[in-house]
Amino acid sequence: MNIMQSLKFVPFVFGFVLLAAACASSFEENDPTGSSYRTDFKFGNQDASDHNLNWLQQEEGIDPNQFILLGGSESEVREPRPVSNNILQQKYKDTLVLRGDNNTNRVALTFDDGPDARFTPLVLDVLDKHDVKATFFMIGARAKEHKELVKRIHESGHAIGNHTYWHPNLPNEEPQRIHWELTETEKTLEDILGFKPRLFRAPYGALNEEIMELISDLNLTAVGWDVDSLDWKQQGPEVIQDNVLSNVGFGSIILMHDGGDWSMDLSGTAEALDEIITRLKQDGTEFVTIPELVNVPVEK
Q1: pLDDT value at position 73?
Q2: If DSSP codes are grouped into helix, strand and coil, which group holds residue 189?
Q3: CA 21 remoteness from chain centre
Q4: Which domain range does residue 79 map to?
Q5: Separation between Cα atoms, residue 184 and residue 178, nearest integer Å
Q6: Of 132, 143, 145, 174, which is least packed with CB atoms within 10 Å of its CB?
Q7: Stretch 195-199: mean pLDDT, rounded?
């Protein structure tokens, strides 16, 4: 083939490349599977959370069970130890709580990243068995898809808090995005419960001063923890029990999970919970919700 003949194919090839690029761009911006919210998907050299996706629109067709935490799994993002926000707490004493009064015999069980149709009912059954009330920090996207579980939690006397809509790592996000994550979850929970919860927990416990200022402006109370069960490491129930029982004290806020990445097996959490409650009750511990432990309102 001579040069002139080769050149005849240039417009065709160039047009094909443009068409392919346009199709790829359209797929990225309109992907109905929800993959645009997953950090394991890349767009060029960008993470999904950095891509210019229209996150203000709630996409249809997302399988609520095939959920992947936007900011990444717990094991990918934070150290395998309790997160300390002690320095922030000194500045924002009225907005951030990390534990309750250690002069009482009270502790608070808290559960993050639900509701999950597989594990939340298991946790609720154990709590019902022992007549114990806890606090659930919910992901908005999951709450929207599991409204009956949200109602069951509320009607059982447990407290409910805001855990963002897609579980991003907030310090990596722009202020507009952070504001949307919090307020969209508020709206979702208000539609189900009839009120906006006062409590908020940041994904991974990741906070900074800018986020704390926004939390204060939104009249929220940020809740941390001082005891991490490390159940997100998918350890056996005996290990989870020891992680809690060897670190808990009066006034403690205990972090556990009733949801997480779709691939996570949290069945050990419910098994461990049964023994944790039994042992602590034997020691005279009283289980209360976060509003009871730190004397903050349930509603905004």
Answers
A1: 62
A2: helix
A3: 35
A4: 74-294
A5: 10
A6: 174
A7: 99
Q: Which of 77-86, 114-123, 187-196, 229-238 has the lowest mean pLDDT?
A: 77-86
Residues in the chain, total: 300
Whether residue 221 lies inside any domain: the answer is: yes
Question: How far is Cα 149 from Cα 156, in angstroms, rounded to an integer?
Answer: 10
Provide the pairing of β-strand 42-43 with 46-47: antiparallel
Q: What's the structural domain count of the chain?
A: 1
Catalytic residue check, 257: yes
Decide if 263 is inside a domain.
Answer: yes
The yes-or-no verdict on residue 160 having pLDDT over 70 is: yes
Contact 237, 271 (CB under 8 A): yes
CATH no. for residue 264? Answer: 3.20.20.370
pTM: 0.77
Looking at the domain assignment, is residue 24 inside a domain?
no
DSSP state of 41: S
Is 173 in a helix, a strand, or coil?
Answer: coil
Q: Which two tokens stand for residue 286?
A: 């009283």
Token pair for 280: 């602590």
Q: Which of 112, 116, 226, 258 is catalytic?
A: 112
**Among residues 146, 158, 257, 258, which one is catalytic?**
257
* Burial degree of 103 (CB within 10 A; 0-12, 13-18, 19+): exposed
Cβ within 8 Å of residue 174, ≥6 positions away: none
Range of weakest confidence among 4-8, 29-33, 100-104, 200-204 = 29-33
Residue 267 has which token pair?
Answer: 């069945």
- CB of 67 within 8 A of CB of 166? no
First to last CA, the chain: 75
The amino acid present at 11, given as its one-letter code, is P
Does 36 fall in a domain? no
Both tokens of residue 18? 């443009």
> Is 298 in contact with 223 (CB distance < 8 Å)?
no
Please enumerate in sequence order all residues whose Cβ is within 8 A of that of 78, keeping only pairs 6 or more positions apart, or say none: 204, 205, 206
